[in-house]
Amino acid sequence: MSATLFERLGGEAGITQLASDLLDTHLKNPVIARRYVDSDIPKAKQGAAEFFTTGTGGPNVYTGKDMVGTHRGMNISNDEFVAVLDDVLIALDKNGVGQREKEEVLFVFFSMKNEVVGQ
Ligand code: HEM
């Protein structure tokens, strides 16, 4: 049997690093940085890591809201969504993630677009 995406991304350590790099990249991205001015960044990193862990076939550790509930009232635009995808690719490249895994991660993110944009 082939390894889960969670395993291929380096398990807990790999996902924790990716989530941390992703949030750090958001903070430097002018399109979306303002969204995080009131955030508790370590907590947001942890929430992202737990969501990615569960969503990539790792242990079921995510206890946050679903994606509609998390982003309700934010009225996120298409441009902001693309900015997050840009940052996802930057974080994946920074960590040397392979082409196949990058494609899978991008697909997982893109497939959640309608749960995030315009809520
Ligand atoms: C598929 C794309 C996205 C996914 C998978 C995603 C996932 C998440 C997750 C897992 C959380 C943390 C929830 C928790 O810990 O309870 C979160 C919070 C958040 N997301 Fe997203 N998100 C996406 C797109 C976006 C976009 C496009 C924006 C707009 C810039 C955005 C803005 C935020 C903000 C502001 C928070 C709250 C951070 C905090 O203060 O804790 N998200 N998102």
UniProtKB/TrEMBL annotation:
UniProt entry tagged with the keyword Transport: yes
Binding residues for heme: 71
Keywords tagged on the record: Heme, Iron, Metal-binding, Transport
Keyword Transport in annotation: yes
GO biological process, one term: oxygen transport
A GO MF term: oxygen binding
Residues spanning the signal sequence: none
InterPro entries assigned to the protein according to its UniProt record, in alphabetical order: Globin-like_sf, Globin/Proto, Globin_bac-like_CS, Hemoglobin_trunc
Requisite cofactors: heme
Protein name stated in the entry: Globin
Taxonomic placement: Bacteria, Pseudomonadati, Pseudomonadota, Alphaproteobacteria, Hyphomonadales
